Amino acid sequence: MGRQLAHGGDGVVARGFEGLRPAHGFAFARLAPDGATVTELAAHLGVTKQAASQLVEEIVRKGYAERRPHPGDARARLIVLTDRGWTCTRAAEEAAADAVRPWAELLGEREIGSLQRQLLLIAPYGPVRPVW
Length: 132
Fold this sequence. Notes:
Blueprint: H1 8-14, H2 22-31, H3 38-45, H4 49-61, E1 65-69, E2 77-81, H5 83-107, H6 109-122
Antiparallel strand pairs: 1-2
Helix pairs in contact: 1-5, 3-4, 5-6
């Protein structure tokens, strides 16, 4: 085929964002709609609350997210993306579109649409988590 697909991290790095791992992308996806608590983020990622707290500390330190008071729970903190986090999220979406573009060229738009619908049937709520 002669084409190489960029890894998601390569695409984001090429767009000026460094020090990110795939776990960050999964976290950004959960934070993007309206933010989340550390507990909600831990459940989304399938990790312990401690691991989610460490990840939050890292993305806050790097300027991708910030902690805010939770509007419905005075004891909780809401983690939300900063402008930098939103810009990185858009860059990741562009990188993903670039990575899939060769598939569309090979299969055609109709087959890509069919593939997307099939994937939604398999995993309607997002990524499939391994069971071990």
